[in-house]
Amino acid sequence: MDDIKARYLALIAAAADEAAIEEVRIAAMGKQGEVALRMRELGRMSPEERQTAGPALNALKDEITSALAARKAALGDAALEERLRAEWLDVTLPGRPRRQGTIHPISQVTEEVTAIFADMGFRVAEGPQVESDWFNFDALNIPGHHPARAEMDTFYTHRAPGDNRPPHVLRTHTSPVQIRALQAQGAPIRVIAPGRVYRADYDQTHTPMFHQVEGLAIDRDISMANLKWCLEEFVKAYFEVDHVDLRFRASHFPFTEPSAEVDIRCSWEGGTLKVGEGDDWLEVLGSGMVHPKVLQAAGVDPAQWQGFAFGLGIDRIAMLKYGIPDLRAFFDSDLRWLRHYGFASLDVPTLHGGLSR
Ligand code: DAH
Question: CA-CA distance, 285 to 230, in Å (whole number)?
Answer without folding.
Answer: 13
